[in-house]
Specification:
Number of helices: 7
Shape: globular
Protein name: Pur operon repressor
Number of strands: 13
Helix content: 25-40%
Number of domains: 2
Low-confidence stretches: 275-279
Keywords: DNA-binding, Transcription, Transcription regulation
Strand content: 25-35%
Mean pLDDT: 91
Largest sheet: 6 strands, mixed
Family: Belongs to the purine/pyrimidine phosphoribosyltransferase family. PurR subfamily.
Radius of gyration: 21 Å
Subunit structure: Homodimer.
Pfam families: Pribosyltran, PuR_N
Structural class: alpha/beta
Length: about 280
């Protein structure tokens, strides 16, 4: 094999890192794969790290030791994230999106790969130190968002079902009161989560927080800890949510079904004093 040019090697390295976030990659193995000296790779990785941090794409973390290694930690600059959410908010202010009960039609927005990709990076960036072993969501609209977040955290994703499926095997089910004051059921296969693990709850929408609280209660049945909650959009009312600590990317501040007026603003994610979003 002919010697790889440095520019080509940097492109290959960047591709490898982006495809495997949060995974420690051996410098020795990458050096063999790219037919390069580890010293050359170290210089290339320093360049990649500098560009990533400057562009708000995350950073590279090195691991000391005989084998040595590096991992890509996804990130997203706050100013870029805020600009992204402001654009989404403008899209969602269309009065034709108003649904009965003060809800908004968002399925088309949450079906856009670039929206899911950016939202996943934002959540992964904020919750990267949470220690989450799994991302959990409730079917159905939150699934793509949870998949995107799980990808950038490099952890498995688990779906809580509204109805028990026979293909799930033995399951734990609970009843809860939704934000619309209806009694609903959710269930999860007993094989889904090992005891003692930590999960990050990701959902598309939060009104009163009843669904999130139900997921927390369900996780208690599995002896699993919810270390963070992230939602794509929450509502300004009611102000006192059942769940107190969570991060939202956007907030539905006002919906007037009569005048067809909608106001959406950046969510708690962008508050200066926003916490890590833990429970």
């Amino acid at each position: 094999m002919s010697k790889m040019r440095r520019s080509e090697r940097i492109v290959r390295l960047t591709q490898i890192l982006l495809e495997q976030p949060h995974r420690v990659l051996s410098l020795t193995e990458m050096a063999d794969k790219l037919s390069s000296a580890k010293s050359s790779l170290s210089e290339d990785l320093a360049i990649i790290r500098e560009v990533m941090e400057a562009e708000g794409l995350g950073t590279l973390e090195t691991q000391a030791g005989a084998a040595g290694g590096v991992r890509y930690v996804p990130g997203y600059r706050r100013d870029l994230g805020l600009r992204f959410i402001e654009g989404i908010s403008e899209t969602l202010t269309d009065g034709d999106r108003i649904l009965p009960g003060g809800f908004l039609y968002m399925s088309d927005v949450l079906g856009l790969p670039e929206v899911l990709d950016t939202a996943g990076k934002l959540f992964a960036s904020r919750f990267r130190e949470s220690g989450a072993d799994y991302v959990v969501t409730v079917e159905t609209k939150g699934i793509p968002l949870a998949v995107a977040t799980a990808r950038f955290l490099n952890v498995p994703m688990v779906v809580v079902r509204r109805d028990h499926k026979v293909t799930e095997g033995s399951a734990v089910s609970i009843n809860y009161v939704s934000g619309s004051r209806r009694i609903q059921t959710m269930s999860l296969s007993r094989r889904s989560l090992p005891q003692g693990t930590k999960v990050l709850l990701i959902d598309d929408f939060m009104k009163a927080g009843g669904t999130s609280k139900a997921v927390i209660d369900l996780m208690h049945e599995f002896h699993v800890d919810v270390v963070g909650i992230g939602v794509f959009i929450d509502t300004a009312e009611p102000q006192n949510k059942i769940v107190k600590e969570y991060l939202s990317l956007a907030t539905l501040q006002e919906v007037d079904e009569e005048t067809r007026q909608v106001k959406v603003v950046p969510g708690t994610y962008f508050e200066e004093d926003a916490s890590e979003g833990g429970r």
